[in-house]
Amino acid sequence: MNKFLLLLLTIFTFSSCQFSENIYINEDGSGKMEFSFDGSELMLMAGDKMTEGSGEKEVDSTFKFKELFNEKKDSISKLTTEEQEKLKALENFSMHMFMSAEKKKMKFELFTDFKNANELKDMFTALNSASNLQGKKGAKLNDPNNPFSSMANGGNTELKYSFDKGVFKRSVKVKNQELQKQTADSLGSAAMMFANSKYKLNYHFPRKIKSVSKEGALFSEDRKSVTIEYGLMEYMKDPEIMNLEVILED
């Protein structure tokens, strides 16, 4: 499990992938959130090396973060109270990994159920917080070598979700614009690697959508789902472009 977690963090730093943020909301405000990315391009380049050491040519595994935290309880006890609280908030997250050297496919899905959209956690917070358990190998906040590090809560952005009276909001706030600019300017080769990567928002609602605050949104046939696609580097440079408001019909 630790090997796969470290592999996941490596992919974030060195590979061009396709990312999707999927949210399914029920009428009572409960639902499911899933963050997924397709790393098949890396599998095409690395081949058998990606499954090396696992004893299998294909890996299809699902685990709960709570299980990982139990394995790392001694390390967790040495963290600050604040860091322990961050990890505790992630106990309900699970991860599914699929890697096949033969099929040249790689996909990771990080998901959780929620009772209220206001409880939704930033998936980048989950990955960065869990990576702290890797010690010196873990991800660092606002690391220019890892463009995702500033996107986690505790980094330079704050991401919140809400769903109230038929209005869904995805709100991103950049805490320090100058730091954000410095991070974007420091991406270097990472900017080239992620140049063709996309970040998709796929949101599904219990009623028809009346309006969306972004142009270019694509709706499902029943108009209960919406998809908006961004260039990943657009998000890296200006996370606030993904601020979104969706208003449902009465």
Protein topology:
Elements: H1 2-14, E1 18-25, E2 31-38, H2 40-46, E3 58-64, H3 65-71, H4 73-76, H5 81-88, E4 94-100, E5 105-114, H6 123-131, E6 157-164, E7 167-174, H7 177-185, H8 189-193, E8 198-204, E9 209-212, E10 218-219, E11 225-231, H9 232-237, E12 244-248
Parallel strand pairs: 1-8
Antiparallel strand pairs: 1-2, 2-5, 3-4, 4-5, 6-7, 7-12, 8-11, 9-12, 10-11
Q: How much helix, percentage-wise, in residues?
A: 25-40%
The rough form would be described as: globular
Structural class: alpha+beta
* Relative strand content: 25-35%
Mean pLDDT, rounded to whole units? 77
Low-pLDDT parts are 135-147, 149-154
How far do the termini sit from each other? 46 Å
The largest sheet, given as strand count, sense and whether it forms a barrel, is: 8 strands, mixed
With strands numbered from the N-terminus, the spatial order across the biggest sheet is 3-4-5-2-1-8-11-10
